[in-house]
């Protein structure tokens, strides 16, 4: 996020911290995971993005991609978060490829829509192969439902947000 590129920022827009210390929520399980406090294996970790396995896999491959700094759910995002969401998607695909998932057309990438989030820290679900998801996960990560939104849909929504508000 380029600090020089300042759109019409109004009051009420969440401030983003660019400091290396970042935001850390003491009560947040995902903050603990990305800070290596729990011993969960990090499949990817950099200043902005981290990735680890979902503890309850809904498909043979099920990863969670999260911002390394605490950011709340999809509802709290704005247009300025589009690059971050895109990077989360890229990271998810890279981790899949590292784990020998070659068919990137048979995957599901998306977010739970509030209040259907078990953890408040923004997280992208990455599932593959989508065709091997069981009944319950098909329901949990269902396309065009009011509780799950694909990464593409979220990006579209955030892009539109600026024009309407
Ligand atoms: Zn957190
Ligand atoms: Zn979720």
From TrEMBL:
Coiled coil: none
Motif, Histidine triad motif: chain positions: 121-125
Gene Ontology molecular function terms on file: hydrolase activity; nucleotide binding
Highest taxon above the source species: Eukaryota
SUPFAM superfamilies according to UniProt: HIT-like
InterPro entries: Histidine_triad_HIT, HIT-like, HIT-like_sf
Catalytic activity of the protein: adenosine 5'-phosphoramidate + H2O = NH4(+) + AMP
Active site: 123 (tele-amp-histidine intermediate)
Domain HIT: from-to ranges: 29-138
Keywords per UniProt: Hydrolase, Nucleotide-binding
Protein family: Belongs to the HINT family.
PANTHER family linked: ADENOSINE 5'-MONOPHOSPHORAMIDASE HINT3, APRATAXIN-RELATED
Protein name: Adenosine 5'-monophosphoramidase HINT3
Organism phylogeny: Eukaryota, Metazoa, Chordata, Craniata, Vertebrata
